[in-house]
């Protein structure tokens, strides 16, 4: 089972990532730009996701992905932690979101995703 501690550990392992409490929840940022949050009771996370992809994800896997009403106008998607298959899937989602927020100059600092995580 994926936990909020897994989200935190993987997010903070990404280059120049910091954690900051905002709106009474943990948020993860790169170069000051938010790329992930642990909202509500930390059973889900919110990540950046282009709207076209977000809509496809929520239609294809509604048990895993959904759009919170207050985020509908933004390029964010929610992910149910319990629905994730493993830590590699979690890492892939966080890395994708991190890449969308990171400055171009920082993208090369990200190592290949290899087997850095395990179940």
Walkthrough of the structure:
The chain is of the alpha+beta class and 119 residues long. The protein has helices spanning 4-13, 51-60, 87-101, and strands at residues 17-22, 25-30, 33-37, 44-48, 65-66, 76-80. It has a 6-stranded antiparallel sheet with strand order 1-2-3-4-6-5. The relative contact order is 0.20. Mean pLDDT is 92; it is low at 113-119.
Strand and helix layout:
Elements: H1 4-13, E1 17-22, E2 25-30, E3 33-37, E4 44-48, H2 51-60, E5 65-66, E6 76-80, H3 87-101
Antiparallel strand pairs: 1-2, 2-3, 3-4, 4-6, 5-6
Helix pairs in contact: 1-3
Number-wise, the strands total 6
Shape assignment: globular
How helical, in percent, are the residues? 25-40%
Oligomer: single chain
Strand order of the largest sheet: 1-2-3-4-6-5
Key terms:
single chain; 6 strands; 6-stranded antiparallel sheet; alpha+beta; disordered C terminus; 3 helices
What's the gist of this structure?
The chain has a six-stranded antiparallel β-sheet.
